[in-house]
Structure formats: structure tokens, C-alpha cells
Amino acid sequence: MKRIAAFWAMLCSMVVGVFAQNYTVQSVSGRVQKESGNNRVDVQVGETLNAQTVVFTGVGASLVLKEGETTFTIPAARNGTVAELTAAVSNVRIGGNIATTDTSSVSRTTSQVSTASARASEAAQDEDIAAE
């Protein structure tokens, strides 16, 4: 019985945590809308969106949200709840080093690679099934 009570307490705290997340709109560029009942309404800078708000970003649009100290940039042509979109963005690492690659002919190597059809035709010649 204690396990069931602990499970429900944990589940309720997770649900409350998801719904309690509020995101403040820092900037909007292009056409960004949110679902409000059966209509779509333009998102305004400074308004607060909860995690379950459904957001639509148009082509060439972007939305910058802030939750606590974390800032999320939602790129163009994305639709979904704020929680889904910020989770997708937070897993992306921006930055790093780009190394140059030597594409001169000296660094390239070629080798012969047989294809499946070539191997199959060779195998068909090795065994004669009709002889049985």
C-alpha cells in the first residue's frame, strides 16, 4: 500500500511540475501563433506561455522563450506544445570547431567494391541446382 501511495505522489508531482513551467516570450520574428480554443492567436512579446500551450511557427519565423535562467529558440516551421519544442531544442548543442578536410586527390583512395548483384551472379555460376 505504501508503494502505491508513493507512486501516486510521485506521479502527481511530475504532472504538477510539467504544468507549472511558465515560459516568457522574449522575442518573436515572423508569424508565430498559439492555439487559443478553436482559434490561432498571434504570440506577443512579454506574454507568458505554459508548457501545454500549442505553438505554431511559420516559415522564416522564430520564437525565443525564457524559463528561469534558460533561453530557448524555437526555429521556423515547428508545431507542438511548448514543452515538446523546448525539449527538442535543449538537446541540441550549438558551437564547436569546424575542421578543414583535405580533399586533394593525394588523400583520396579508391578500391573495387563488388556489388550484391555481382556476388549473386557469381554464386549462381558456382552451383547448378537443376542437375539434381
Question: Can you offer a commentary on this structure?
Answer:
The protein is α+β, with helices and mostly antiparallel strands. The protein has a domain at 21-90. Helices cover 30% and strands 29% of the residues. It is built from 3 helices and 8 strands; from the N terminus they run H-E-E-E-E-E-E-E-E-H-H. The protein has helices at residues 2-20, 82-90, 116-126, and strands spanning 22-29, 32-36, 39-42, 48-50, 54-57, 62-67, 70-74, 79-81. The strands form 2 sheets. A 4-stranded antiparallel beta sheet has the order 4-1-6-7, with helices on one face. The chain has a 4-stranded antiparallel beta sheet with strand order 3-2-5-8. The protein is extended, with a radius of gyration of 27 Å. The N and C termini lie far apart (70 Å).
Radius of gyration: 27 Å
CA-based shape:
extended
Low-pLDDT stretches are none
Summarize the biggest pleated sheet: 4 strands, antiparallel
Beta fraction:
25-35%
Write down the oligomeric state: single chain
* Spatial sequence of strands, sheet with the most strands: 4-1-6-7
- Gap between N and C termini, in Å? 70 Å
**Order of H and E elements:** HEEEEEEEEHH
Mean pLDDT: 76
As a percent range, the share of helical residues equals 25-40%
According to DSSP, the number of beta strands is 8
Structural class: alpha+beta
Number of helices: 3
